[in-house]
Structure formats: structure tokens, C-alpha cells
UniProtKB/TrEMBL annotation:
It comes from Magallana gigas (Pacific oyster). It comes from the Eukaryota. This is F-box domain-containing protein. PROSITE patterns: FBOX. CDD domains: DD_FBXL13. The keyword Glycoprotein does not apply. GO terms for cellular component: SCF ubiquitin ligase complex.
């Protein structure tokens, strides 16, 4: 179109401009391009009709485009359209419109028009020259301004470049100065490190010399003690007379008071904290400084009268309670049968008491307990087991003990369901977390329903020795007490799978103890293994219906720590394999397979996968051989306690066990009849840290074995020699001369031992607390009675040897 309008007359161009034909064209073209109508011709006719009706005064280039389709920027400008229609042609400036024969009318689109005749040519006027001159001057000014601006920008750029160079130079200078100072500092640091290295080597040499001196002194002391001990044993073997007072390790002869003189008060109080009430009373009588330490307040916030239960009286307790009542927090009167109302009256004044144990107090009744709980209102732990309290006491507890969390009513026979109803209706019911009702056979299902309705926050429930406990009782508990995570129901044979399925649905169970239940089956364990993923402790002793499927069900309890399947005779190697291949293998620390007679060597092979196993019992598992089973247990390097009683273990197996695992602390070898002195000697030479050892009914052991045991295992604390008929007084003399930490000893059935052995024990084993001497015919009753003054717990009889000892 541009080419077609190039040579047209100016009048035509003026006509197009005055009637806005380019604008109409632009608006139509824009509408067609943007809207893209299906019928373009009809679109054009509609828009032209719209223009005819509304006129062209408000004409705009995008008026035919809907609002939502309008572009943000103008695509075709007026200058472009002017160029298309050649309206900017220079020929337009040579003519001035002079109207001749004006004819006014209305155009097609409603606009006004008038006839135009051809204009005559006019020369430029002075005003036009002035305008042109001004335009020229303005162009020169613009040119000069542009040149000046370029010069200015050039100078500015040059100045910025110079500033940049100066900054770089200054930075380089600063870095150079820093480099010089760094070199000086580096030389100084090298010098200081050299000095420190020299000082370190000197201190290191001094340290090693000091350590060497200490080690040499200790080695010299140990060597001297071993020499004296060896000479002592040799003199005993030669039959020479040894002074009864001659023992080793009984002190250094220094009788200075280091507690009050050299140690600080804090350390002295820490030492005294390991003493009981009787010992503290004796220490207070030594001197004034010890009396000050013995009466320190931190030593009297916890009192335990159970250790002196047979001697404590109302006079003693009232005196002590009156002195320490402001800071007394923990108090135990378990088994104190000689206490009466005076003690309980003094006890009611201990307002800060939080932990109270009145178990087995025969003098406790409803009135005494009411007096105590009315005064001690912040009690958290209350133990009333083996007492004669009734429903009135439980009503008192519910009324005054608002914060009690721990409550033990074990073997209290005189309260009834009404007492539990009082307890569940009291203010303490919502805070009670621990409840022990063991042996309370008088409770019926109605009592358990009342208990579960009020004590919904129970977390630990103990119902041991409860042969009348049935599913109705436990279902009521499981329905309301949904937060129970620890449950102990030892000796409840009437419970079935239904109870444990209900308990498993609560999903909080972490510790479960069951014993002697012949109705529980694998279905219960499957439900527990599926729902109780937090299970940590599982005790299922003597549950005969359980099989390998039970171990497979709990194998995926990844947090299982203790698994006790004692006397579950249907457990085989397959069950142990399932347990070892499950996710619990990494966390299991204790495993008890006592009397699982179908467990054999393959189970021992799989037990090796329990890398963190600390305790293992496979006693009386007769199918475990010595070479393929016992020796594999030595590869459990984390194992500390082992029970292989009644297994096929001889000297070779015992030697291999000690060779591969010298970290054992507690070993039970009862009824291992093939063990001799040689095997025990090799074992004790390798496991010198043994603390507890059971050698009962190892009939081939003699005094030589006990000699090696005493020489190697000096930290022995518990020893069982029952049924070792070849043991004599010489063995007891070996033990009393070296094993001064021994506190438990069983010599039942040692028929050769006489009164002289007790004399050795009194002189050497000062820490002995438990001594068992059943069927010891060589020990007289008079000597045993005399020994009772030195040993708190002593059992003695001179009856005939039972048949099961196997003596001929």
C-alpha cells in the first residue's frame, strides 16, 4: 500500500487524514489480528456499523479488541501508519488549504467534511526563517553539549581508573607490610615452638620417670605380696604351724585420722555415705571431728532401719527422727516389728518425707497410718506390703495422699474391693503410676473394674502370686488402663490368650513377666510381637505351650534387651535361629534358655550373632556338646555372666572358654562332674577378674584347685563349693589368706571341713555376710553359734547328706 500511495495527490492524503481512514484501518486490522473471528467479513461489517452509530470522535486503535485480549504494548504506531499511507510526504508542506466553494456535509461515518480546492504555492515567511534559525542553533547547542558530555565522561572514566589503580597500589602496600610482619611473627612462633618442644620433652621424661617409679613401687609391692603368699601356701602344704593372725592385706599399720585431717569435708561425707545407721552412730563416738561429719545433713536425708530391724526400738527412732525431720526425704522401716505408735507419731512430724517403706511393720494399723499420712502429705512412694491395713487405710490414703505415685499393697489380706473403690475415687487416682497387688487373693473382678475406672494413669502393675486371677480381671484393666507399659503376673495359671491380646492392643507394653502359665500359646506372642514394637523385657518362664513360633514372633522387636524362656521345653535350634536373624539381635543383652532340652550346638552357633550379649544361661541343655557348643561361647566377647550348669563341660571346654573370653565376671559350673583341678587351674589363670563362681557338685575338685583359684582370683566376692566333698580346711585357709573381698560362701556338704575352717574365716574374711554350712558334720553347733556373731546371715545344719548329693 505504501507503494500505491506514493504518487497520490496531497488532497487525497489530506482527505484520508481528516476522515481518520488510517485510524479505522488500524483499529480493524488490530481487531482481526487479535480476536481472529470465525467470519472476518461479518466482523468488519459489525464494527463499521458500530462506527456509523457512535461516530469517529472516540476512535482508538484497540477499540475493537476485547478488554481481556488487549496487548500491553502498542505494536503498530501512528508513525508506521503515516509511513504506510505516505501522509508524511514533503509535498504536504508546500500547500496551504484555502477553502473555495465550501460545501458542508456529513460523511458515511458521521464526521463533517467540506470541499477543498487546490492551494496555491507560497514562499517561506520571515517567521519561518526565524524558526529554522532557532532550530539550527538548537542543533548546534545539542552537538556542543554532546561533545562536552563525551569529554566529561572520558575524564570521569580516566579519574575512576586512576582511583582504582591507587586503591590497588594501597592494597598491595598493605599486603606487603602484612607479609613482612607475618615473616617476623613466623620466626618468633618457630622459636616459641622450639622452646615448647624442649619443655614438653623434659616434662614427658619427668612424667615417664614418675610413672616408672610408681609402677616399680606397685610391682615391688605385688611381688612382695605374691612372694609372701607363695611362702604362706608352701608352709601350709608342708604342714608347718601358721599363726592364726598371719593374713595378708589386712592393713598398713597406719592409724592416723586421714578423713578429718587430710580429706575435705565433701570427700569425708562421701565416704560416710556408704555406712548404715549403726556404723554412723559408732563413727560419731570416735572423736569430735568425726561426730561433725557423721551428723552432716546430707547423710540423714535417707534413713534405712531395715539393716538393724531386730535392734531398733521406739526410743531410738523417735530420737533420730526428731533430729533429722527437717531434711528427711527417704525412710525405710521394712521389717521393724518392734515399732509402735510413738514412732509413727514422730514420723508424722517429718513434713518433707517423700519415700516411706513400712513393709512388714507388725505394729502398723489403720490409726497409725492415718496419723502418718495426715502429717506427711507430699509422699510420693508408699510401701505397705505385708501389713494388716484394711479398707479404712485405703480411704485415708485416697483422702490425704494427693501426690502418691508408687503404692505397694502386696500380701495385704484384710482390705477388700471397697478399699480399691475408695482408692480409685480419691484425688491420687489420676497420679498413681505404680501399683503392687501381689498375693491379694481377696480381690474379685469387681474390684479390678473399680480400680481400672479410676486409676487410668497406671503404668506399672504387679500381680504376682495371684492364682485366682482370671481373664475378667485383666480385661477390665486392659480396657481402661491403656498406658500400662510394665506388667508382672508371675504365678497366674488361669489367664488365657484373650488377656494378652487385649493388652497387646494398647501398644505401650515394654516389660512383660509371666511364669507358670500353661494356657498361653503362640497366638499371644504373635499379637505382642506385632503390636508392641517397644518391647524391651520379656520373661516367659515355664510356659509349656510356647514353641519356636513365639521366638519368631518377637524377633522383630528391635528394642528387646532381655529374653527369658527358661523351662520352655518346646524351644529348639530353629527358634534360636529365628531370634538371631531378627532385628532384636543387635539389642539383646540377656538370654535365658535354662532347661530348654531341645537346644543344641546349632543354637550356640547362632547365638554368636548376639554381639552385645552380656548374660547367657544354657544350664541343663544336655544336647550342647563341648567342642561344637561350649567353645563357641568363648567368641561372645561382650559376655560377662555365663551359666552352663549340668552341661557336658570338661577341662578342655573350660580351658577354651577362658582362652577366648577373659572378661567373664560371673560363671556357674554347677554339676559339671568332669571338671578337675587342671581345667579350673587353666580357666582361673586366664580369667583373673572372676567375681562370682559356682562350683557346686563338681566332685573331682580338691584343695589344689582352690589354691589356684585363690591365688589368681583375688577379687572373688561369691563362691559356691556345695557338694565338693574333697574340700578340706586347707582350702578355707587359702581363701581366707587371700580373698578378703569374699562376702558369700557356701560349703554345704563339705563333710571334711571342721571348726578350724570357721576360725580361718573369722580372721581372714572380714567382709563375709552370707555363709551356708548345711550337712557339715565336721562343724559343731557351738562353733556355728560363735560364727553367727561375725556373719549376719548364716545357715547351719548337721543333718545327714541327702541322696541327691550322690555321696557313696
Amino acid at each position: 500500500m505504501a507503494a500505491s500511495m506514493k504518487g497520490q495527490k496531497p488532497e487525497l492524503k489530506h482527505y484520508l487524514r481528516s476522515n481518520k481512514l488510517p485510524d479505522i484501518y488500524e483499529a480493524l486490522l488490530t481487531g482481526l489480528a487479535v480476536m481472529c473471528p470465525d467470519d472476518p467479513l461479518q466482523f468488519i461489517l459489525d464494527k463499521l456499523r458500530n462506527l456509523k452509530e457512535n461516530g469517529i470522535d472516540e476512535l482508538n486503535w484497540d477499540m475493537f479488541v476485547e478488554e481481556y485480549m488487549k496487548p500491553p504494548n502498542k505494536v503498530i504506531t501512528e508513525s508506521n501508519l503515516d509511513f504506510i499511507f505516505n501522509l508524511d510526504d514533503e509535498s504536504m508542506i508546500d500547500f496551504i488549504d484555502i477553502p473555495v466553494n465550501i460545501q458542508r456535509g456529513q460523511g458515511y461515518f458521521g464526521g463533517r467534511f467540506e470541499g477543498i480546492t487546490k492551494s496555491r504555492k507560497i514562499w517561506p515567511t520571515p517567521e519561518m526563517y526565524a524558526t529554522a534559525y532557532g532550530h539550527y542553533n538548537m542543533s548546534l547547542k545539542n552537538m556542543c553539549f554532546s561533545a562536552w558530555m563525551q569529554y566529561y565522561l572520558h575524564k570521569k572514566k580516566k579519574k575512576l581508573a586512576m582511583e582504582k589503580k591507587m586503591n590497588r597500589a594501597a592494597l598491595h602496600h598493605a599486603h606487603r607490610i602484612l607479609r613482612v610482619h607475618l615473616n617476623v611473627w613466623r620466626d618468633w612462633l618457630r622459636y616459641r615452638k622450639g622452646c615448647q618442644a624442649m619443655a614438653y620433652h623434659k616434662l614427658k621424661r619427668i612424667y615417664f620417670v614418675s610413672v616408672g617409679i610408681v609402677l616399680f613401687r606397685e610391682w615391688r609391692a605385688v611381688a612382695k605380696r605374691n612372694k609372701d603368699q607363695r611362702e604362706y601356701f608352701e608352709r601350709l602344704e608342708r604342714g608347718e604351724n601358721v599363726d592364726d593372725e598371719e593374713t595378708f592385706g589386712q592393713g598398713d599399720g597406719d592409724a592416723q585420722d586421714k578423713l578429718s585431717g587430710q580429706l575435705g569435708i565433701e570427700l569425708a561425707v562421701k565416704v560416710f555415705s556408704f555406712l548404715d545407721i549403726a556404723d554412723l552412730a559408732r563413727c560419731a563416738c570416735v572423736c569430735r571431728s568425726w561426730k561433725v561429719i557423721a551428723y552432716h545433713s546430707s547423710l540423714w536425708n535417707r534413713l534405712d532401719f531395715s539393716k538393724v530391724r531386730n535392734r531398733v526400738t521406739d526410743l531410738v527412732t523417735t530420737k533420730l527422727l526428731s533430729k533429722c525431720r527437717p531434711y528427711l526425704i527417704h525412710l525405710s522401716m521394712r521389717g521393724c516389728s518392734q515399732l509402735h505408735s510413738a514412732t509413727f507419731t514422730a514420723l508424722s512430724e517429718c513434713r518433707n518425707l517423700q519415700d516411706l517403706n513400712l513393709s512388714e511393720c507388725k505394729g502398723l494399723d489403720d490409726e497409725s497410718l492415718k496419723l502418718v499420712v495426715k502429717g506427711c502429705k507430699i509422699i510420693l512412694y508408699l510401701n505397705l506390703s505385708h501389713t494388716h491395713i484394711t479398707d479404712a487405710s485405703l480411704r485415708t490414703i485416697s483422702k490425704y495422699c494427693h501426690n502418691v505415685q508408687f503404692l505397694s499393697l502386696a500380701y495385704c489380706k484384710k482390705f477388700s474391693d471397697r478399699g480399691l473403690q475408695y482408692l480409685s475415687a480419691g484425688k491420687c487416682s489420676k497420679k498413681l503410676e505404680y501399683l503392687d497387688l501381689s498375693g491379694c487373693l481377696q480381690i474379685t473382678p469387681d474390684g479390678f473394674k473399680s480400680l481400672s475406672a479410676g486409676c487410668t494413669m497406671l503404668q506399672i502393675l504387679v500381680l504376682n502370686e495371684f492364682p485366682t486371677l482370671n481373664d475378667d480381671c485383666m480385661i477390665a484393666i486392659a480396657a481402661k488402663c491403656t498406658k500400662i507399659h510394665t506388667l508382672s503376673i508371675l504365678g497366674s495359671p488361669l489367664l488365657t490368650d484373650e488377656t494378652f491380646k487385649r493388652l497387646a492392643n494398647n501398644r505401650h507394653l515394654r516389660k512383660l513377666r509371666i511364669e507358670g502359665n500353661q494356657r498361653i500359646s503362640d497366638l499371644s506372642l504373635k499379637a505382642i510381637g506385632k503390636n508392641c514394637t517397644e518391647l524391651e523385657h520379656l520373661y516367659l518362664a515355664d510356659c509349656q505351650r510356647l514353641t519356636d513360633a513365639s521366638l519368631k514372633a518377637i524377633a522383630n522387636c528391635s528394642k528387646l534387651v532381655v529374653c527369658n524362656m527358661a523351662d520352655v521345653v518346646q524351644i529348639t535350634n530353629t527358634g534360636v535361629q529365628s531370634l538371631a536373624e531378627g532385628s532384636c539381635a543387635a539389642s539383646l543383652r540377656e538370654l535365658n534358655l535354662t532347661n530348654c532340652i531341645r537346644v543344641g550346638d546349632m543354637a550356640m552357633f547362632n547365638i554368636r550373632k548376639f554381639k552385645n550379649l552380656v548374660y547367657l544361661s544354657v544350664c541343663f541343655c544336655e544336647h550342647i556338646s563341648e567342642k561344637s557348643g561350649i567353645e563357641l561361647l568363648g567368641q561372645l566377647h561382650a559376655l560377662v555372666s555365663l551359666d552352663i550348669s549340668g552341661c557336658n563341660c570338661s577341662d578342655e571346654g573350660l580351658s577354651s572358654l577362658g582362652k577366648y573370653n577373659n572378661h567373664l565376671r560371673d560363671v556357674t559350673l554347677s554339676e559339671c562332674a568332669d571338671i578337675t583341678d587342671l581345667g579350673l587351674q587353666k580357666f582361673t589363670q586366664q580369667c583373673k577378674d572372676i567375681e562370682r563362681l559356682d562350683l557346686s557338685h563338681c566332685k573331682l575338685l580338691t584343695d589344689g584347685a582352690i589354691k589356684n583359684l585363690a591365688f589368681c582370683c583375688r577379687y572373688l566376692t561369691s563362691l559356691n563349693l556345695a557338694g565338693c566333698k574333697l574340700i578340706t580346711n586347707l582350702s578355707i585357709q587359702y581363701l581366707s589368706g587371700v580373698c578378703h573381698h569374699l562376702h558369700t560362701l557356701d560349703i554345704s556338704g563339705c563333710i571334711i571341713i571342721t571348726d578350724k575352717a570357721l576360725k580361718y574365716l573369722r580372721k581372714g574374711c572380714k567382709k563375709l555376710k552370707y555363709l551356708t554350712m548345711l550337712y557339715c558334720k565336721g562343724v559343731t553347733k557351738h562353733a556355728a553359734m560363735k560364727m553367727m556373731r561375725h556373719v549376719p546371715a548364716l545357715k547351719y545344719s548337721d543333718d545327714e547328706i541327702p541322696i541327691y548329693y550322690g555321696y557313696k
